[in-house]
Amino acid sequence: MAKIKTLSAFQDAIDADFAWRIKEISNLKTEVSGSSSIAKTTLIRAGIALLYAHWEGFIKASSSHYLSYITGQSLTYSELKSCFVFLGLRAHLNRLSEAGGSRGGAEALDFIRSQMNERARVSHPKSINTQSNLSSKVFDNIASSIGIRVDYYEARFNLIDESLLARRNKIAHGEFLDISADEWRALADEVLVMLRTFKTDLENAAALDDFRAPAPAIPAAG
Description:
222 residues
C-alpha cells in the first residue's frame, strides 16, 4: 500500500475504494430486480456473500488507509492517542510480555517509555485483522483500536451477526438459504449505510486530527 501523507490523498484513497463497491452492489440490485424467479434465488445467494465481502473489505481497507495517513504525519508516539501507541508497539510489547511475571511487565513499560519520542509507525500489514469473520465483536475491536466510537453501530450489531455474517457462513458452507428479494435489498441498503457512516467517521477523524493525544492540562496558578 502506498504511503498516504496528505488529507486529500487519504480522502481520494477511501473515495476510490468506496466507489467501486457501491457500483458493484448497485449493479447487483438491478440484476436482482430484473431477473426471473429461478435466477433471482441464485443471485440473492451470491449477493449475500458479496455484501459480506464488501463489509469486511471496506472496513479493512479504509482503516488501513487511515493508519497509513496517521503514519504519514511524522508524529511521535507521545503525540498520539494511546490506542495508536499500542498499535505501533504491539508486536514488541507482545514479545516482552511473553517473558511473564513482573520482569516482563517492567521491561514492557521501560520499552514504551524509551519509544515515546520516536517517530510513530502504526501502519502494518497486520494492524487491521478482520479474522475473515467480521462479526460485531471483531468490528468493535477494530473501531476501538483506531479511536472510532461505535455508538451508532451498536444498534446494528444483531444485523451484522445474524442478517449478514450468519447468512454468509451458511452460504459458504453450502447450506440452502431462503431469503426474498425485498429482504436482500433491505440488507444491502443497511450495509451501504454502515459503510458510508464508517467512511464519514474516518474522514472526520482525519480532518479533525482526532488521532492526536489531548494537550496536557495547564496547572492552575498558585
